[in-house]
Amino acid sequence: MNKRRNFEEMCTELDDLAAVPTDVLAAWVTDRGRCLWESTFGDPPEWTGEEEPDRELATRMCAGCPVRAECLELELRVAGPETVGVWGALHEDDRRALHAVWSRRRHFLLTAMTESEERG
What backbone phi and psi angles, to 5 degrees, belong to 86? Predict the structure, then answer.
């Protein structure tokens, strides 16, 4: 139950990104993502090729990223339940579980936004 509440809180933090177009999110993540900057311009970490150490390394790198929420939102939209790797500081197993909560919440949020716009 605690993990579910945590997922609800994460989804609440992502609600403000619901209206941001996917291409805008992608540009933000590409331009400002710490992992992309490090691998392009910085000193990229030494990946081991082993799942657990690489997951921990990626999660630490994500922790200081200025677009962590945008990255997570983007991956939930684009990859959905088929998500792999580390995005938004979450491993794929956690994101798959989060996706179920996020998609249910997002459906209700977007429905409410549409109804509000139709009323005027």
Answer: -115, 125
Enter the pTM of the model: 0.80
The Cα-based distances of 50 to 56, 57, 71, 86, 95 in angstroms read 10, 11, 23, 14, 20
Domain ranges of the chain: 2-119
Phi and psi based region of residue 50 (left: phi greater than 0; alpha: psi -120 to 50; beta: remaining): beta
Closest to 26 (Cα-Cα) out of 78, 66, 63, 65: 78
Which residue type sits at 110?
L
Residues 2 and 95: beta-carbon distance below 8 Å: no
Mean pLDDT per block of 10 residues along the chain (120 residues) reads 76 90 95 80 74 79 89 94 85 89 83 68
* Percent of the chain as helix, strand, coil, to the nearest 5: 75, 5, 20
Partners of residue 87 on adjacent β-strands: 90
Q: Give the integer Cα–Cα distance in Å for 65 and 29.
A: 10
